[in-house]
Amino acid sequence: MDRKICAVCCGTEREVSLNCPLHCPYLVAAHRYEEETLKTKPLANSKEMPFADVEFPPGLIQEHELLAVGACATILKFAGQHPMIADADVLSALSALVETARTRAAGIYYERKPDDPLCRDLYAELATFLADTRKREAEHAGYTAAKDSDIFHILVFLVRLATQRSNRRPRSKAFLGFLQRQFPPIQEPAQEESRLIIP
Predict the structure, then answer these.
(1) Distance between CA atoms of 103 and 151, rounded to whole angstroms?
(2) Is 101 within a domain?
(3) Which of 34-43, 47-56, 133-142 has the lowest mean pLDDT?
(4) How far is CA 78 from the centre of its chain?
(5) How many domains does the chain have?
């Protein structure tokens, strides 16, 4: 969205009727302000906590930190390729993956893909990442490959994180902005010009 907008519309319609680009400086500043001033309550004390019945084994996230970080990087990369995506889309894809992982951990294979095409594409990207990572872990000696129950718990953790970090506006990108701050893009070093003088 490279059009001009008045300050009032930006302030009142941001992430409501406007699908703001993730790199917009006003959106970034608004998210930082919300984080610093509103201090959302922990979901552990909230009835809104997704999958409230799920308890985490101690140390699970630390044990499979690379898997969780890789899933976040996959979401962020997908968001960079699909600027229209919002937190609700990410939550939809992650929640569907949780349900698929829950049935798989119970010994049943049944996929619960989202109906929305964008959410379904993100679901597929994350599912591919998780399958590829598990395969690589299994092939390397010294690595403990994540079990189906581990994947389930990691996905529940990500759903809770996304829910807590989202500001719950219809087109919120607060969670995506949070991920962007945690994993800033790696700047490619500028190529040095050749000092050779070619006649």
Answers:
(1) 12
(2) yes
(3) 34-43
(4) 9
(5) 1
Closest CA to 71 of 152, 186, 143: 152
Cα atoms found within 13 Å of the Cα of residue 59, Cβ hemisphere only = 1
Confidence of residue 1 (pLDDT cuts 50, 70, 90): very low
Euclidean distance between CA atoms 91 and 169, whole angstroms = 13
81 is a domain residue: yes
What tens digit of pLDDT does each residue of 138-152 get? 777 666 778 889 999
* Per-residue confidence (pLDDT) for residue 6, from 0 to 100: 64
Whether residue 86 is contained in a domain is answered as yes
pLDDT of 192 strictly over 60? no
Whole-angstrom distance, CA of residue 175 vs CA of residue 69: 14
19 lies in which domain range? 7-44+58-182
